[in-house]
Amino acid sequence: MEFPAYADALRAVHECHGRSVLLGPGCDAAALASAEVEIGCGLPAGLSTAWRTCDGSGDAALFMKPGFLTPDRFLSLAAAREARDGLRRRAPSYRGTDEDAAPRDDRIRSGRFQDGWLPFAGFGGGPLLRMIDLSPSAAGRVGQVIAFTHDPDTIDHVASEFATFLRALLATIEQDPEAFLEIF
């Protein structure tokens, strides 16, 4: 599923419940190119399309981890880069901890930070982050979606690619739109 189709489906879910989701303008090609230089490789087309469509969602929830009902905000490209820098700064302080040594899905490289991890969605200012993994392990796939969850700190595999993530996410939202929209 491509992001524009996902955004249209999400608008329909909102409208069905008397709500609206307004997406701002997208970021420009120069900003995306700068991020790619910083990361050292190209962004997956699906995520690039998402940022070209809208550069973050502000306070509107656009994502979540499929199967979980915690709505995530789509980070602007600038916020994604800032979150990535925060992960990089904090990673050395965790070397040698039990959490750092915990078993992990073999598709994800070990450690608290890899240069190819780029957050794109989050909840609560960082305790939950969805990330594109551009530097997976040999068993993984470039462009897979992974999730960082704080307390206990874990990094989990979410989807093999961004389009698969969007499809699974939309299915979860359509099963319980009230929870996603926080209608209680």
UniProtKB/TrEMBL annotation:
UniProt cross-references to InterPro entries, sorted A to Z: Knr4/Smi1-like_dom, Knr4/Smi1-like_sf
SUPFAM superfamilies attached to this UniProt entry: SMI1/KNR4-like
Any Pfam family: SMI1_KNR4
Membrane-spanning segments: none
Domain Knr4/Smi1-like: 26-167
Signal sequence bounds: none
Designated name of the protein: SMI1/KNR4 family protein
Native species: Methylorubrum podarium
